[in-house]
Structure formats: structure tokens, C-alpha cells
Amino acid sequence: MAGGKLSARQKMINLMYLVFIAMMAMNMSKEVLSAFGLMEAKFAESNTVADEKNDALLADLATKAEEKPMEFAVPANKAAEVSIVSDRFYKYIETLKQDLLREGNYTIDPETGTLPFEAMDKTDILDEMWFTGDRYTKKGQEVVNKIQEYKEDIKRILGSDVKYKKAIERFESRFSLDKVENQKIGKEIDWLNYHFQGFPAIASYTKLTAMQNDVKVTETNLFNLFLGNTLDEAVSLKKYQAIVLADKSAFFAGEQFQGKVVLGKYANVTPTKLTVQGKEINVAEAIDSSGAARLDFNVGNVGEQKIEGKFTFLEDGKPLEIPIVGNYVVVPRPKSATISADKMNVVYRGVENPMTISFAGVPDNKVNASGAGLSKVSGQGKYVMNPGAGKEVTINVTATLDDGSKESDSKTFRIKDIPAPTGVIAGQTGVVKLPKRNVEIGTVSAKLDDFVFDLPIEVTSFKIKVPGQPTVNVAGTKMNGQAQAAIKRARRGDNITIFDIKARIKGNSSYKLKNVSPVIVEVTN
């Protein structure tokens, strides 16, 4: 029915995956790398605490096995086996972490004991160690085999006893090696590729520490299971908890709150009395056939609000009061939209500018955005802007609220042209030094320095001037025979100028790029 609160560990894992997603959508920042480092430290600290706790649980089992061998001898033996195989796998993961540090030349600060988070941005360490083409390396296959070996060891220890069925299911889920759907490419990929290929070193290191945490959690859960700390709760109303289920998580100021107050399990048990927010509710009208109580009251001011009350039942001939404790958030009615360009504060002519447009508190299907050159694409709140002529473009957004009323907002963006490309010869720009031979066989190209889009630029023609020789016109990107002959006559120290480079964007020949900057080559031989 209703889920419980997330554990601190689960919140940490959820945060890690949110950061994973963020890193795929933005250029790597030092702050993001530091965030991974802080999460790694939290996992490491959690592992230390879990290790101490697990030792205590294991010792408790050993003691109980001596005191009550008929009841605890077998569980204590299973726990000892779990400890051995878990410790072996934990140490193996540690070797992978040390391999990563060694190959990346990363060292732990001896004074603070911390990793160089901001420097651990390399993405090729595990890529080269674990992957080759579309296959695993010998080391990569070893990693998968070790995980599978640990899974088989734990399941062998637990055996086929039905009381361990749920524990095995949770363990299988925690260490699942099933393929994972990569929504970016639209197909499923292997588990190891999905979690480790292409990530910066600190992210992979943190993931390995998180896997060690999974090992410790497995030990904790199984030791508690062997001790009998996970017994089913007795069927008594004293074990139930009143839970507030709102029809939606947030409400606009002035709206009517709508939701339910139910017990931890749906049961056809009618209370003798129901009080909410200090007011007694008519039980006959509020309670439905499932045992749920309907609530209907003004939500109050903007901010977090509490729901307080109590159920009163009759059990064993005595009144039993169960407190109702819940909360909800009231948000103000939206007055402005959130409009942001995903890569810049301006939009560029000649390219498709990705944009995210939303209205606070309003679903995407009730938001309408319009503007010259703006079009909707797949994805929540995703649009593409292809600006035309002019210096500015305005985007207008209208949202339809739940009550049918509409709110509107707009924002104006500056339109800029794509900056002038830079000429390139033999991979170098500006004033360069090259042997004549390199110039003769070199390829002339163009690129956009420090531009937010990675646009494919192709050169269609250029001119070359060798001192003492007439200017030569060249079509394409390679020196023709006339140009090569002129280059052969150049002397050491001569400056060969490659200029009037004509270029265009691949796939968009209609957009005229600005003049490409020339390249000057000083002949070295």
C-alpha cells in the first residue's frame, strides 16, 4: 500500500544516480567530481560501521549456538560461511579500486586520508582495463565472473529452505547482472558496460565502494535473519500505523485537500471514533468499505502543513487509540514559467538549440509554448529552437491549471551567429612551424574553438601563397599539383600563408559561415 521512509543508504544511492544522469547532460565540473568523492567517503564510513555491527551480530550468533545448539547451531554455521565468502568478495572489490588508483596515478592524501576527487576525471582507465570493442577483456570478464561466483555462494549457503526465499529474491535484485536499457541509444546493454564504461575514475571508484556496501548490507540482513530478528508481526491493531494518502502531493493555496487516512493494512475494521485536526468526524459518513477514511478540509497557507488526529478502536473490550500523523505541502499558484536553454544563455542561428520549457506545478501536457522557430520534440518539456533573422526571439508559454484557469509568461533570448571558424593544417592553428613535406601532404580543415555545439565543418576550397610564387587556388582539402610545386620551392624560414578558406556546415549548406581565419606556416627545412 503506502511505502515507508527511505533509509539513509537508499537516499545516498538515489543521489548518486541523479548525479550520474546530471554528468551525462553537462560538461564535467570540479563540483560534480567532488560530490562523487563525498559520496564515496560516506559509503566508506558506512562500510566501517556496518563491519563493526556485523562482527557483533556474528558473535551473538556464536554465543546463541553454544547456549541453544538445537535452535542456532545451523544458522550460526551459515552465518560463518556468509562471512567468509562476503569477506573474500569484499577484498576482491578492494583490489579493483587499488588497480584504478594505480593506473590513474592517484594517491590518497596521507594527512587527510582523502582521494584527489577533482583530479579523478579520467574516463579511459576501466575502459581500457575491462572493455575491448564490444567485448570484455580478460579482466572485465573476471569481474563479472567474481560477482556471479559470490551470488552462487550465497544462494548455496541459504539453500532451498522456503523461509529464505524472500532474502534470496532481495539478494538477487541487489546483485543483478541483467542487461540494462540504455534509453540514449534505445537498446539494452550489458550490466558492466552500463555501470562502468565511459564514467570518470571517481564515479567508478564510488560505484565499487557502493558495491562493497551492498556486501555489508547483505551480511547484516542475513545475520539478522539467522537471529530471528525479521519475524512476521502479530495480527493486532497495535501493530498498525495510520497513514495519510493525499490524492496529490502538493496543493495550490485555497484548494480543498483531498485524500485518505488509512491503517497500515486495508481492513474492514470500523473505528468507534475519528478525530482530525481537532475536529471529530462522523464515522458513518467518513469510513468506506475498505476501512479508509475520506478527508475534506481547507489546506491552509503556503508551506508544509501537518495532519494530526487519531483513530479510536475497541480491542479486548478497551478503547485503543492509534494516532494519525501526516504532512502535506501547499505551494503557491504558479505565476511564471521556467524557460532555459540547455547549453547557453543565447540561441544561435544555423543550429538546433535544445531547450527545456516547463511551468512550476503543471504537467507537460498542459503547457503550451510558442515562438518563431520553436518546435516540440520527444521528451518531457523538450523543444528545439531554430532562430531566423533578427537579433531577438521571444518564447510565450501558457499553462492550464487544474481548475481550468490559465497562466502565461514569456522570455526573450538574444540571437547570435555562429562564430568564425579557425583554419587548421596538420592539426594546428594560427602560426605554426612545419616541414615542407608535412605541408604538401597536409589536410586543410576548419573548426569552431570553444563553441557550445560540436558542429561538423567541411572545407570546400582555399588559397595558398608561397613567397616568390603566385597564389594558388585549391578545391577541396588537399594540396593539388600546382600547390605542391609551389611549396617545394619554399625555403627554410619562409612563411606559407593558407587563406580565403571556404567552409560550410555539413548538412546545412544554406547557412553561410563567417570567414575562416588563415593559417601561417613557417617552413622548418
Tell me what the structure shows.
The chain is an alpha+beta fold. 34% of the residues lie in helices and 29% in strands. It is built from 11 helices and 27 strands. The chain has helices at 8-25, 30-67, 69-103, 125-130, 138-158, 165-174, 191-196, 201-227, 283-286, 436-441, 481-488; strands at 131-132, 135-136, 180-182, 187-189, 243-246, 250-252, 256-262, 273-276, 279-281, 293-298, 303-315, 318-331, 337-341, 347-348, 353-359, 367-370, 374-376, 382-385, 392-400, 406-416, 422-425, 431-434, 444-447, 457-465, 472-475, 495-505, 519-523. Strands 6-12-11-8-9 form a 5-stranded mixed sheet. Strand 3 (180-182) and strand 4 form a beta hairpin. Helix 1 (8-25) runs antiparallel to helix 2 and helix 3 runs antiparallel to helix 5. The chain starts with 7 loop residues before the first helix and ends with a strand.
Which characteristics define this entry?
525 residues, alpha+beta, 5-stranded mixed β-sheet, 27 strands
Number of helices, counting only DSSP H or I runs of 4 residues or more: 11
Which structural class do the helices and strands define? alpha+beta
User: What is the overall silhouette?
Assistant: flat
Instruction: Compute the number of strand runs.
Output: 27
Distance between the termini: 80 Å
Structure summarized in a few sentences:
The protein has 525 residues and is of the alpha+beta class. Helix content is 34%, strand content 29%. Strands 6-12-11-8-9 form a 5-stranded mixed beta sheet. Strands 22-27-26-24-25 form a 5-stranded mixed beta sheet. Strands 13-15-18-17 form a 4-stranded antiparallel beta sheet, with no helix packed on it.
